[in-house]
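S2.1 Query sequence (SURF1-like protein)
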Amino acid sequence: MPSLTFLLRPGWIALVLVVVAFTYLCFTVLAPWQLGKNTRTSRENHQIDYSLNTPPVSLKMLLPQHDSSAPSAQWRKVTATGHYLPDVQVLARLRVVEGSPAFEVLAPFAVDDGPTVLVDRGYVRPEPGSHVPPISRPPDHTVTITARLRDSEPAVQGKEPFTRDGFQQVYSISTGQISSLTDVPLAGSYLQLVEDQPGGLGVIGVPQLDAGPFLSYGIQWIAFGILAPIGLGYFAYAELRARRKEKQAAPPAAEPMSVQDKLADRYGRRR
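Output structure tokens follow.
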């Protein structure tokens, strides 16, 4: 049987290492990454669908106190009575609404006998040079608002808040970061106003229900992780077969002559 020592050649060793590394990444990084995105998208789609077909409930049922959050109720429509805190507004910059740049205007809202919650009043379009346009102040009296619950976003690493055009600006709607920035204790989830609400600006709509390609991408990476070692095995087998055929096609090596045959051949030629 032909030797498998060809597998120890530097080229084959490099190929084996690449295939092993690729297979490892497929099963531990790439497939879980896409399948995780599919899980999150499916969860959000379910929450959106549920919220669209469920009447609003009191905010205090889901956020009873300042340290409350409701990740399982994202997009749920709620109502709250209270007042906006005066002179406290923060802008979330570099947002995209309906395909165009926007600032989202954030303001704390103190719920009567409940927590203070961050409210996304809606969006305004930036002026040339990314300057802030004039923004109307929210009502300064008690109002009742209807909004959708949203999960707090993680703060963007390396992007610190700053002040420009008279507004504190942030790169994500992180309730923890904005609470520290404004010295206002805030609940863990925030509110996104629906249309025709007191203090509302440009309405931010609900995302379309779309599962996206993440599940198929995850399955593809799993398939690639399975096929890569199979392909390596096939190439090794093909190389082995080629070597076997070469050996079978080579002429048989001449058998070494014994001493007697050599003497007989030598003296026979002399005669």
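The chain has a mean pLDDT of 85. Residues 58-193 form one domain.
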